[in-house]
Specification:
This protein has about 375 residues and is α/β, with parallel strands linked by helices. The chain is about 40% helix and about 20% strand. Helix 3 crosses helix 4.
Amino acid sequence: MKPHRVIVKVGSSLLSAGENRLNANYIRRLSLQIAKERRAGREMVLVSSGAVVSGMQRLGWKKRPTARADLRVAAAVGQMLLMDAYEDAFSRSGLHAAQILLTAEEMAHRTLYLNARATLRRLLGSDVVPVINENDVVATDTASFGDNDRLAAQIANLLEADCLLMLTDAPGLCRDGSRRDVVSRAKAGDENLLHYAKENGGEGIGGMKSKLEAAKIAARSGADSLIADGGARMAIPRALLRAGGGKRPFGTLLAAETPPLSARKRWLASGLRVRGTMILDDGAVRAVVRDKRSLLPAGVQKVRGEFVRGDSVALADANGKTVGYGLANYDAAAARALCGVKSAKIGTVLGYVFEEEMSHRDNMTVLE
């Protein structure tokens, strides 16, 4: 059975006709496929690149700019042209396009995260296809998704999607540079696949490495991912048949194979806006990761960064490897004072007690 709720990510390589022109014909073909799946009862969300190349077309620029300010200008101008193309294409099938521009900062803010989810869910119940892109005009290097693969993975988590479909100009993840020996199926998060990403020349932004990392993110909420050739005939229906258990090869299926996380823990697992880090001793790592217990102050060796009560913090082992995320019950100054302290002594050290834990089990998630 085909997945019901699907996030489709399409990259610039498919959307551009040459280096500085939007491929309107491809957008129409893509929109027809999405519309067909919508009529079949599936919920479809589109994460689309293409704003910069659209802006270059409108501004008459022949070469992609490298300066951050110029890229923002191109994105600001091009986003309108891109959405016009999608609205025109979807309207031919009786649908409309809704523009959604997000930043990592917004996705990391609990209230804004929930607002985005509520809006998107409402749109899915109407004759509208959400078209999502990063808000490049205000995004910064330190508060950015990095590329639209990761953005799409975060949307898959946000909406508890069944499948993340990443359309590219390659047939899938190939074992070598020939583009013929395609990995048909693997487990999302399999570190051995990174070698193939290098063979595919996919180390850069939006390359195969990014897609493998996006699949790992999407797997946290139980979503399978598929990397497939978006230029192939009827790519989306073929990809969804493959993701739904079809035997006919198409692309690379990266299976989640893990139970879905709860919505709250999914948000924590995104780790987008971590305000600090708590370094745990070996006993605390075992308690948090293996035994699924709360983090007590006695197991915290060191606190890094500045944060307030309720902020998201990373939980790391003695080597600095992140093992999970949690909401802090104490601010950074208090947390530093409590490092290694028994819970019964919190009042003695601070003069007050909020909680016995540094972070409660219900407000934590671990990275398997």
